[in-house]
Amino acid sequence: MKKIRKSPIVLFMLALILLYVIIYIVPSVTGALVSSYIVEYGELKVADEVTGYLVRNEQVYTAGTTGTANRYIDNGTLVRKGTTVMEITGGADGEIDDKFSQIVDRLGDDAILTSDYAATKGGVISYYADGYERRIRPNNMKNGGYSYYSKLSQDSVQNLQRDTVVRGEPVFKVVDRTKWYIVTFVPKDHGARYKTGQDVIVEFEDGTVDAEVHSVTADVDGEHTRVILACSNYYEKYMQMRACPVTLVTYEERGLLVENSSITKENGQLGVFVKKKTSGSDFVPIKVYATDGVRSLVADTFFDDAETGKRYDTVEIYDEVLKEPKN
């Protein structure tokens, strides 16, 4: 009799378990098998995350005397020609620090040996140098490919601000403020995203600048496209960075999004298959404005085709689109 009385309780528990499976487990398992989705609005950001190599017109000054440094100008300050940047007083002879000797070696005879520590031309004062100021300039930045630039490191950049200076060591540099450049290398198949004269937003870890595409060239390694960007906007660290992570944003808009796996062709026309309310699906022409390789931002409701002169009805919000239509 006890077994019979417990039966309703057991049945009730089984019903709860079955209900749980239907509500929670079945959808999560079958979700991977879903063959369609609902089209909605969203943000599409087309960007490349790469390393940016900063190139400037700049001149490094080395100390003509040994002694204690007294700096009059802060890092990042714009000065006129003839401005006294610092002075060095007292002191005896000494040996150049190893980390500075590497910079001096790279600079060769390009550095300006100064005893009055005055800027010979106007520009922004920087107390950071790596010795590549001579080797990498706007007039020769196109000479290097990915194999050359990828060896550059921010670790080579040294802070020149210290109390004691030895004759011949780098002490400051003057950087052109009018224009500077960022050399980047994007994957070969992303090269089509960039055109000379195009506007690009460059996102640094701590700031954003507007830039213009200066040149686009296939790299000799066959795997990259070299994109050089020209900047005239001020970025606080532009005079001290050599290599740093950047994000190049070529497109960022809000609109109707479809998955690239949905896009197919019918009689030469791009389109997607939209499910009917009853059964089956219809091919619907689309116009793609931009893609990030996974999703595409497309025209909404209708679009005009300049080549044919026709107006096409197209996808709308909440249409149900097949994920992977059979061509």
UniProtKB/TrEMBL annotation:
<dbReference type="Pfam" id="PF26018">
    <property type="entry name" value="BSH_RND_rel"/>
</dbReference>
<dbReference type="InterPro" id="IPR058729">
    <property type="entry name" value="Beta-barrel_RND-rel"/>
</dbReference>
<feature type="domain" description="RND related barrel-sandwich hybrid">
    <location>
        <begin position="58"/>
        <end position="176"/>
    </location>
</feature>
<dbReference type="InterPro" id="IPR058709">
    <property type="entry name" value="BSH_RND-rel"/>
</dbReference>
<keyword id="KW-1133">Transmembrane helix</keyword>
<feature type="domain" description="RND related beta-barrel">
    <location>
        <begin position="180"/>
        <end position="250"/>
    </location>
</feature>
<feature type="transmembrane region" description="Helical">
    <location>
        <begin position="7"/>
        <end position="26"/>
    </location>
</feature>
<keyword id="KW-0472">Membrane</keyword>
<dbReference type="Pfam" id="PF26011">
    <property type="entry name" value="Beta-barrel_RND_rel"/>
</dbReference>
<keyword id="KW-0812">Transmembrane</keyword>
<protein>
    <submittedName>
        <fullName>HlyD family efflux transporter periplasmic adaptor subunit</fullName>
    </submittedName>
</protein>
